[in-house]
Amino acid sequence: MPSEKFIIVKGRKYKKSPLKEGPKKKRLVKLLMSARRDVGVALKEKNKSKERLARNRVHKYKKQLKER
Question: Three-class SS of residue 66?
Fold first, then answer.
């Protein structure tokens, strides 16, 4: 029986957000994806300070989504 707390995408296990679907969750997911894109941009630019700021945002949104 699969766990209700995790989802598997392309063979990788991810913790599911316990938040109910709604405008708040949708906004947080949108902000999280934007922060993840910014991490990628910073990595390509090899800009450590920009990368750290983007990773901090990813962490903040993951906490708000209760995924951490």
Answer: coil
Question: What pairs with residue 12 in β-bridges?
Answer: 9
Q: Are 19 and 9 spatial neighbours (Cβ–Cβ below 8 Å)?
A: no
Q: Name the residue with tokens 């990595």.
A: 43
Residues 6+ apart with CB under 8 A from 9: none
Q: Are 5 and 15 in contact (CB under 8 A)?
A: yes
Please state the φ and ψ torsions of residue 2, each to the nearest 5 degrees: -70, 150
- Sorting pLDDT into bands at 50, 70 and 90, what band is 27? very high
